[in-house]
Amino acid sequence: MTQKKDLSEKVAALFSLKVGNISAALTEPGQKFFCHDNRLMDDDEVADLSGEFMSLIVALLASQDPTSQASPQFHALQMFFTGLSQKVQVRGGHVEEVVRYTHQLQQALVEALEKDSGIKFTQSRSVWLYFNSVFDELIMAVFRAYLEEKEQALYAQEQELRETATPITEIWDGVLTLPIIGTLDSSRTMLVMEALLNRIAKDHAKAVVMDLTGVKNIDSQVSHHLIQMVRAVQLMGSEAIITGIRPEIARALISLNINMSDITTRASLSDGLKEAFRSMGIHVSQKAD
Amino acid sequence: MSIPGVHLTQIGREDFLLEPSRGLDVSEHDRLIESIAERLLGARASRLYYDLSTQAIIDPIYYNWLNKLARTAQAINVKMVCVQMQPTAAFALVQFTHELPVFETALDISDWQSKIN
């Protein structure tokens, strides 16, 4: 308790300083890491950044308990570094630059305060440790923001991949087409089924044409999932038409010993579309001259 | 006469809409089926639309109930059509059944009516 009080008093001594004197020292690290080679920010922006940091650190030092990492002032400082980390990443910078900047900022701050106050903080272990713990936590905030940004990017890429892997298109009012290309595996078939069923509900699709022309090979488990997909489409009240079944896929499908008499199949995608139109009572004909 | 757990509404001359409520206890299927069949027979119904829009999951017990009701309807010359089955329910249902069920399915009532006309 005495030690904490002692530290607070020492830290309190820092607030009485005219902080305006140290602002120049704080802009140096920003210029070094964000302005020179990589041009992530311009001089004005770095000056604003340093000014904001200074007002936040002053607010922390002036708070009731500067050692508390639960205080709103400390939280504001963390948010500042989180925002900085995100900004640098969005502009194509690296997390390493923000971490090095934070380290240098700590050093610049301590040196400037020492110079301005005449107090040797390097000889005061408690003050030194205090700044270390504050900046360690700020570096953690930088890393957390970095990881969060990476996770979001990964999630977005995953979503994009899912969407491109299942290009469900409404080719006519109430008619969906689903060309399946490449190798089908169980997890992909389940994803396709999920996306397809949701799309049927959303678009109120009366018919779905699933084209397997681009499917290279399927095993018995995937054949089973494919039949499940057809059944699920039928259960939702939509008509399922499978097109482009190659001989090896036909063989895989019949090996399941499943009654396929109630599953509509057609040779090509165009035949499948004609069947969908026929079932919906749509007649497509060539315009007479 | 109300049937517990079920709203049965006549929506046309020969059509009935069945909307299950939260209180539906399918373990009481025999009693429920008898009451529903009685209403359908009394009104000389020919179609029973079963609304599945609030049923997020269909498990084997619920599926069994639907099939029993559909078979009973068949026995009294009523066609049962399940409408608005949810994607999650269809997904769950195909995990444990390989054959198409006894009942018919449609996106909604108007979709079924356009199919038969």
Structure description:
The complex is a heterodimer of chains A (about 290) and B (about 120). Chain A has about 290 residues and is an alpha/beta fold. Chain A folds into two domains: about 1-160, Globin-like (Orthogonal Bundle), CATH 1.10.490; about 170-280, Transcription Regulator spoIIAA, CATH 3.30.750. Chain A is built from ten helices and five strands, in the order H-H-H-H-H-H-E-E-H-E-H-E-H-E-H. In chain A, strands 1-2-3-4-5 form a five-stranded mixed β-sheet, sandwiched between helices. The mean pLDDT of chain A is about 85. Chain B is built from four helices and five strands; from the N terminus they run ββαβαβαβα. Chain B has helices spanning about 30-40, 60-75, 85-95, 110-115, and strands at about 5-10, 15-20, 45-50, 80-85, 105. With about 120 residues, chain B is α/β, with parallel strands linked by helices. In chain B, about 30% of the residues are buried. In chain B, strand 1 and strand 2 form a beta hairpin. Classes of the chains: A alpha/beta (about 290), B alpha/beta (about 120). The interface between A and B is medium-sized, with 24 and 24 residues.
